[in-house]
Predict the 3D structure of the following.
Amino acid sequence: MPPVEGLPEVLWRALNVLDPTPREQWIAVGHHLKAINADWAFGAWLAWSQRSPAYQPGDEDRWDTFRVERSSGSHALQVMAGVREDPTEDFEVVEPRRPRAAGRTLIEWPAVAEARAPSWVIRGVLERDAVGVVWGDPRSFKSFLVLSWLLSVAHGVPWHGRPVKQGRVVYVCGEGRGGVMRRVRAWQDHHGIEGGLGDCFGISRGAIHLNAEQDVMVDRLITELRAAGIHPSVLAVDTVARNMIGNENAQEDMNALVRVLDKLRRAFPGCTIILVHHANKQGAIRGSTVLVGAADFEYQCVRDEKLGRMVVRVECRKMKDADEPEPMVMKAQVVQLGLETDDFGDEVEVTSLVLEPTVVQVNEEGEMDDVLLQAVREANEAGRRPSGTELAEGRGRKQDVLDALRRMKERGQLKGGEGTGRAAVGYWLPEFDVLFD
C-alpha cells in the first residue's frame, strides 16, 4: 500500500497486514477509519481498498454509509490487525460528540469553532485543498501563469517572492504537449534549475474526459497515481473545453464536471485543482456559471496592448476564504533554448516564454506609465537621472507628465524629482538606489 499523507505509521502497518478482499473486513476497517475523524482517513481507506482485486470504481461511495460507534477507531483497527494487543493502553480515539442515529448523519456537532489560518500552496495566491479557475482570452498567457505555479511548487522555488509548499504536481494537458515541454525547459533555465523533473512533475499524454462520471479515464488516472505512490499537491486541467465532453454552456454537463472534481479531491485529500478556461465574446468567463459558483478562487488574465507588448494583468476575481491579492502585472520574456535541427534539416533557434513581474502599472486615470518608467530606466542604466522636463519632451503636455511622475513617486515606483533649477534632482527607480541615493 502506498504511503498516504498524514497517516500514522502504526496505522499504515496495520492496513498493510489486513486484506481488503473479505467484504466484512473491508466494511469494518471503513468504520474504524471513519471514526478517527481525520483528513487523511478517507484517502487511507481508498488506497487500502484498491489493493483488492474485488475493488470496483464507485465503491468509494460506501464511505458515506459507515457508522461511527464507540467501539470504532484507531485502537480497534490496531487490535484487528494484531499490531496492538494491550487493551488497557491509552489510545487517542475520537468518539462521537453527540448521540447519532444509525447510518449516515447529516448534521455535525463540533465541540469548538476552530479559527485556523488559511493553508497555502503558494502564500496569498494558491490555497491548499481548493478548486479554482484561471480564465481569459486566447493568448492571454493564462497557461503560462498556471505552469509557473506548478513548476514553483514542484521545485520548491518561491513564486516571485512568495513562499511555496513543495509537492508533486500533475498537468492534464489537452493539446500542444511539445510546446508545454519547451515552456517547462524555459522556466527551468530562467530560474537556474539543472537536472530533470524526476517524479515531481507529471503531464498527461492527452485529454482526459473529466465530466464523464462513468468514464474509465478518471478512474484510471486515480489508479495510476495511487499505484505510483503519487499524491499530487496540485492538479491543473488545461483547458476545460479540451478535457470535457458535452456542452460547457449546459448546467447539467458542468455539474457533472464538478462532481468529478469532488471525486478527485476525495481520492487525494488536500489537493488543489486548477481549471484553465476561456472568456466569451463579451469578455466574461465562458459557459455555465456552475463552474464559477463551485470555485474557491478565480483569476482573470487580461492582455491589453495599452499595457505594453507581451504584458498581462492578472486579477483575482474571487478568493472565498482569504483576502484577494492585489492585481499583478507580468511581462512575457523570451528565453533562448539553443539551436536544434528542424524537420527540413536546418538549424533553428528554439525559444519559449516565461512570465516575470514588470514595472508597468496603471494609474487611477487608467493611463499607462510604462513609457515614462522605461525612459527613466534607460537613463538610469546610462548613469543619469532624467529631469521632469526631459521626460516630458515629446510625450504630451508637460503638466500631465509631471502629474504622472508625482503619482508614481507617491506609489513608490520612482525616487527623486526634487528641487528646481541647478539644484534639481532627477528621477531614478528604487532598484538604482545604490547609484543615486
Summary: The chain has 13 helices and 13 strands.
